Amino acid sequence: KRIVVLISGTGSNLQAIHHACQAEGWPARIVAVLSNKPDADGLDWARAQGIEAVGLDHRVHADRAAFDAALSAEIDRQQPDLVVLAGFMRILTPAFVARYEGRMINIHPSLLPAFSGLHTHQRAINAGCRVAGATVHFVTAELDHGPIVAQAVVPVLDSDDAPTLARRVLAQEHRLYPMAVRWFVFDELALDGLRVRHTGAAA
Ligand code: GRF
């Protein structure tokens, strides 16, 4: 299986997935890493692993549709079975999303449907939540609202601020995302309508 990963920054989720692919000898590999920020750290990291890495500066494109067209041309060149958004901080046009629906997933740092959008950890703390976490979901036209593949839960401590909670959630993301990708790689997921069914052996 051919995986393309889209990032905007560090790419710590990218690294977790890459290591899982290699360590567990999956029949899958990351064939390219693309970013909307040409200076994203994750691009340099990918190149150091020998993975093709392309930066597409969204600022040089006339509008969102033009950027999305350039991005999908790059993606299609790789013929991916799965497109993984990992810390990708761009809202994608409905046409772009429709093109990859059913084979594009994202990770969001909250227990969706709670706290879609930004500043999720501070909002969870402000709301007095006792748990928080991360969600892997299929990407649909509605931001952060696609069919949920997997979730990880962490406690919110009285002593937490956004950074301490973010760190605890991110550590779980690095466990959760490789597991979700593994289910996809081994065809252990079935998507019927808005429900994701795990059809394979437990991970
Ligand atoms: C993570 O919190 C992830 O949930 C969000 O982007 C953040 C950074 O991800 N989508 P990464 O370290 O760039 O993988």
UniProtKB/TrEMBL annotation:
Pfam families named in the record: Formyl_trans_N
UniProt entry keywords in alphabetical sequence: Purine biosynthesis, Transferase
Active site (record annotation): 108 (proton donor)
Top-level taxon of the source organism: Bacteria
Binding site for N(1)-(5-phospho-beta-D-ribosyl)glycinamide: 11-13
Positions of the record's site feature: Raises pKa of active site His: 144
Role this protein plays: Catalyzes the transfer of a formyl group from 10-formyltetrahydrofolate to 5-phospho-ribosyl-glycinamide (GAR), producing 5-phospho-ribosyl-N-formylglycinamide (FGAR) and tetrahydrofolate.
Name assigned to this protein: Phosphoribosylglycinamide formyltransferase
Organism: Sphaerotilus mobilis
